[in-house]
Amino acid sequence: MGLAGCAAINPPPAEPAPVAPVISMAALYEKPAERALVNGMRNYEEGAFDRADTNLKRALKEGLASPHDVAVANKYLAFIACAFNRISACEQHFRDAFRAEPQFVLSEKEVGHPIWGPVYRRVRDSVKSAKS
Predict the structure, then answer these.
(1) Is it the case that residue 1 has pLDDT exceeding 80?
(2) Which are the contacts of 38, defined by CB distance < 8 A and separation ≥ 6?
(3) How far apart are CA 24 and CA 38, in angstroms?
(4) Vertex 101, ends 40 and 41: CA angle to 5°?
């Protein structure tokens, strides 16, 4: 009761949290490596695997800015290699994905795929045991 006339003490305003820059798809598409990645992913989804392979390799060669994008490009290249029974290339692309992004994981559905799932698990386990 006796403090009713006192002014409330407010803490100083908090510093705003840093905001990651928003990059539009149009801006990404202007970058050759990122454009090739988007095209390669689209080609893959359309079943145009030769074009997907070419675009994904171009994306890596052009120099993707994000380690996550490097991992994604290698993931799709691994899927293509495994689907065409190029197992050593499939393994190498999964290794390259882990090298780019050590926390690289496939979705549960992707891990369960009968062709590349076992190859991914083998590479993942060897990467984990090498770190131990």
Answers:
(1) no
(2) 25, 28, 29
(3) 13
(4) 10
Domains and CATH numbers, the chain: 29-131 (1.25.40)
* Axis crossing angle, helix 87-100 with helix 67-83, rounded to the nearest 10: 170
User: Around Cβ 66, how many Cβ atoms within 10 Å?
Assistant: 14
> pTM score, two decimals?
0.79
Report the 10 Å Cβ neighbour count for 126.
14
Tell me if residue 9 falls in helix, strand or coil. Answer: coil
- CA-based Rg of the chain, rounded to a whole angstrom? 22
CA atoms of 60 and 77, how far apart (whole Å): 11
